[in-house]
Design a protein that fits this description.
The protein has 10 helices and no strands. By secondary structure, the protein is mainly α. Helix 1 crosses helix 7, helix 5 runs parallel beside helix 9 and helix 6 packs parallel to helix 10. The longest helix has 34 residues. The relative contact order is 0.10.
Length: 296
């Protein structure tokens, strides 16, 4: 009885947090906040370049204007991570798609981050390596973006394996897992901010978060096995966990290898989704999942 009551409270906390973050007011506030942060970052960096800030504050700030872009992109990525956490209870395929959306944004951020290696105003002479890295990251982000379209198209014929009662229990379990993941992400961000304020080396929060996601996906696979022990379901969910591992490895690899691994992970997820939904999905009537033309 106590566990049921505690579960009910935690689920309510998760639902209210999700409703708040997805509200129109929250989206408006976040949009305005990002614009204000970007302009403030630009202004502070320019003041720092002109040595108009206190020495203690100047040590914490960059002198390269392009850092304002990468810092703002980092905030956007953190917001996307929060959305990813709230997508975990909805469906495994949707949360995996969100992971690839974040990967595409990380590749774009890395492209902009390369600009910090250029002088201001921009001078390309002698910086061919920077240009190549920008091109690779940009091409990788575009490829992932295109493959995401194929991935979402494959979801048009998603499997229906769950009875309503079983589905409700599974969603409840995933909400509890997602709440733990959200708390862990907030703790990572707070610790990273503390290191920054202490002028100590910080860590890449997204690298560590994707490591956490690997264990999270495996945990969800094990939870799902309780409700759906069929081979194809285990393979599908485990395959999605493997794609998360590929993403995590891509984030720490050199630029060329990072792009190849990220795109390869996306191709793997697309192939897994098409195969699962085309050959193994079962409709409510018990027949195979048909293509749109066959259902007209």
């Amino acid at each position: 009885m106590l566990m049921n009551k505690l579960t009910f409270i935690l689920v309510r906390v998760f639902d209210r947090a999700q409703a708040f973050t997805e509200s129109e007011g929250a989206h408006k506030f976040v949009g305005q906040g990002l614009v204000a942060f970007f302009l403030a970052a630009l202004a502070l960096i320019e003041l720092n370049r002109l040595d108009l800030l206190l020495a203690a504050l100047g040590e914490l700030l960059s002198r390269n204007s392009f850092d304002a872009v990468t810092q703002t992109f980092t905030l956007v990525l953190m917001l996307e991570v929060v959305e990813l956490v709230f997508s975990l209870p909805r469906s495994t395929s949707r949360s995996v798609g969100k992971q690839f959306e974040i990967l595409a944004l990380i590749l774009l951020r890395d492209a902009f981050k390369e600009l910090t290696h250029l002088p201001v105003p921009v001078e390309l002479t002698g910086h061919s390596d920077v240009i190549v890295n920008i091109a690779l990251d940009g091409a990788g982000a575009l490829t992932v973006f295109v493959l995401l379209g194929a991935y979402k198209y494959a979801q048009r014929c998603a499997p229906r394996h769950w009875a309503p009662a079983i589905l409700a229990k599974f969603i409840t379990a995933k909400k509890l897992v997602a709440l733990l993941v959200l708390c862990a992400f907030v703790a990572m961000g707070a610790y990273d901010a503390l290191l920054l304020l202490r002028v100590e080396p910080t860590f890449d929060i997204f690298h560590d978060f994707y490591t956490l996601l690997i264990f999270t996906d495996i945990l969800i696979v094990l939870i799902a096995q309780r409700y759906m022990p069929e081979f194809h379901a285990i393979f599908r969910n485990s395959g999605f966990a493997l794609s998360t591992l590929f993403i995590r490895m891509a984030l720490t690899a050199p630029t060329m290898l990072s792009v190849l691994m990220g795109v390869g992970a996306m191709v793997f997820a697309v192939g897994l989704t098409f195969a699962s939904n085309r050959f193994y999905a079962i409709t409510q009537t018990g027949g195979p999942c048909l293509l749109p033309d066959s259902r007209k």
